Amino acid sequence: MQEFVDLGRQPTANGFLLPEEVDREFFFRLAVGVCELCTMVQLLEEVPQDLRYHGSYRYHASGSASHREHFAANARRFMATELTGADPFIVEIGCNDGVMLSTIAAAGVRHLGVEPSANVAELARAKGVTVLSEFFDQATATAIRAEHGPADVIFGANTICHIAHIGSVFQGIDALLGPNGVFIFEEPYLGTIVEGNAFDQIYDEHVFYFSVTSVQAMAEHFGFDLVNAEHIAMHGGEIRYTLARKGARKPAAAVNELLADELTRNLSEPETFAQFGRNVERIRHDLLAVLNKIKSDGKTVVGYGAPGKSSTVTNYCGIGTDLVPFVCDSTPAKQGHLVPGSHLPVRPPTAFADPYPDYALLFAWNHAEEIMAKEQAFRDAGGEWILFVPEVRVL
């Protein structure tokens, strides 16, 4: 592995904590490297999975309207294409609060969510979703196959890149997937991250940063074919990958097209990653300059949105309460807690207009259109948005 960016000492990104828990916080070095053989980009230090996914996990996928719409559409698509046989069966790895499987469950289709975080698993069960509270690996998959039979679809969204023991995951896919079944996963795209300078997509949960080139190499290594790859708009730009058993399906033309496109864009070249590292340093410099100018001018700024990636930004840039006194977020489980590491207090959305600040630092930039439309009154009151991806700018 060739290291190309070091974002310093970081906590677990979704480890939102209470003030009395600060002295027990876990930290690690957040650095990323690329494999010179298979082009896989990944973290150089792994955070144990039980520190990342547990009974007080704060991320709820249903919290965004765009997420709900996207995953409902995914469910309808699966039912129209892959889940059309007699008594079909779909398994979702990391079903979170049931945002996708609830639509499947409502249609009466046989399904199973595999979700290790007990609190969000309970939210899924409340929506009628059948959930197994375990980590997905070969042993879990083998047990599922024995009880339920083979899966027609195994799905993961913003989950597969989180799992460090990727070998056991693929052994589990091999054990569970039916002969003509598909393994479909959608994850943040390396091209979007690198070319868009989206360094805040890098945090403890994102162990791998997939490209079409590296996913094809990974699929082949574990005995599968990459048969489709599609750009999707989620989280600022992701790719949905479809894998099948060797020779079971003919690869779509999109696979070779995207492989050729990555080659043209030098997405696996050392200089591309080196430039990304330089761009990240520039963003830190420019963002701190803007925030310090606001402070020296006697103006006010608060954070908007507390996704996991807000932890990366605040800790890498050294943003504390002296520059951003608090962050507003609509997730009840985060309210009253502190952003990991930087310890910015998280308050409910009502605090944003009590009164409006002069500036809002938009941590949830991947929902910018949805948020700005909802907060038009902030703009009407003279407020301005600060964004930092792909560069620092004030709108």
UniProtKB/TrEMBL annotation:
Classification via Pfam families: Methyltransf_13, Methyltransf_14, Methyltransf_23
Residue ranges of domain C-methyltransferase in the record: 234-390
The Methyltransferase putative zinc binding domain, residue ranges: 2-50
InterPro entries: Methyltransf_Zn-bd_dom_put, Methyltransf_Zn-bd_dom_put_sf, MeTrfase_14, SAM-dependent_MTases_sf
Name listed for the protein in its UniProt record: Methylation protein EvaC
UniProt organism field: Allocatelliglobosispora scoriae
Phylogenetic placement of the source organism: Bacteria, Bacillati, Actinomycetota, Actinomycetes, Micromonosporales
